[in-house]
Design goal:
alpha+beta, Diaminopimelate Epimerase, Chain A, domain 1
Length: 261
């Protein structure tokens, strides 16, 4: 069977996008992992299926590059909004369902094929501080710490230590190191399911911005720099809870093609 696919990226976080509305195939864990393999497949941090949804514009199913269906992906949510626009499913706004519930998104602008997409994230009711780290769930679970000279870190090694630690042994966790600058945060993320550092992680950027607000009493918005580009997180805060959280930044198509599966 030949499968038509699209490749999208958002600040270097890249995804295979498939329009599944009129298709009945099933992808096994092994097949997803093979498609995401950067040597033997298309190559991506994850794979996203766009399906019909009677209660929204579409449904987003996200799979990590290890082949397993995963929790919410923020950059993936921004890419699927751009993808839905290309398919003419939406205009400037979208309402879609994902594993963590319903999301809203907006295409705030477009230039040279790059869309500027804003994605509303789930509310965050709890941030847990333990010594010098924070844990919270922004659609996916994240561990955050603030440090200096994080550009020198071996992220694969340091990320694995925490992701596979006894504290998070049941489900694992995504790991973020952040460096505070005068007017932005620099963030590096190790993603479970990818099992390596990615150039950017939308739920990780969101989690780190909220942890920064929580710890340093910083107001919205928070500017972020990742190895893959720049993002912004805005929010409303009520005590220790956060709502009306928006992740925004660029998303763009890379290429499309067909592959035999």
């Amino acid at each position: 069977m030949k499968l038509h696919f699209y490749k999208y990226q958002a600040t270097g976080n890249d995804f295979i996008m498939i329009d599944k509305r009129n298709l009945s195939f099933q992808l096994s864990t092994e097949m997803v992992a093979e498609l995401c393999d950067r040597h033997f497949g298309i190559g991506a941090d994850g794979l996203i299926l766009l399906s019909a949804d009677k209660d929204a514009d579409f449904y987003m199913a996200y799979y990590n590059s290890d082949g397993n269906e995963s929790t919410m992906c923020g950059n993936g949510g921004r890419c699927i909004t751009a993808f839905a626009s290309k398919l003419k499913l939406i205009g400037k706004t979208a309402r879609f369902n994902a594993i963590d519930g319903q999301h809203q998104s907006t295409i705030a602008g477009q230039s040279n094929g790059i869309m500027h997409v804003r994605l509303k994230m789930k509310d965050v009711d709890e941030i847990i501080k333990t010594e010098n780290s924070f844990t919270l769930n922004t659609g996916s679970p994240h561990w955050v710490t603030f440090a200096e000279n994080i550009g020198l870190l071996d992220m694969a090694r340091e990320g694995r230590k925490i992701r596979y630690s006894t504290r998070f042994v049941k489900d694992g966790i995504n790991v973020n190191f952040a460096e505070i600058h005068d007017d932005y945060l620099f963030i590096r993320t190790y993603e479970r399911g990818v099992e390596d550092e990615t150039l950017s992680c939308g739920t990780g950027v969101t989690a780190t911005a909220l942890a920064y607000s929580f710890e340093c009493h910083v107001e919205s918005p928070v500017s972020i720099r990742t190895k893959g580009g720049e993002l912004k997180v805005s929010f409303l805060r009520n005590g220790t809870t956060y709502h009306d959280i928006w992740l925004e930044g660029p998303a763009r198509p890379v290429f499309e093609g067909e592959i035999e599966i």
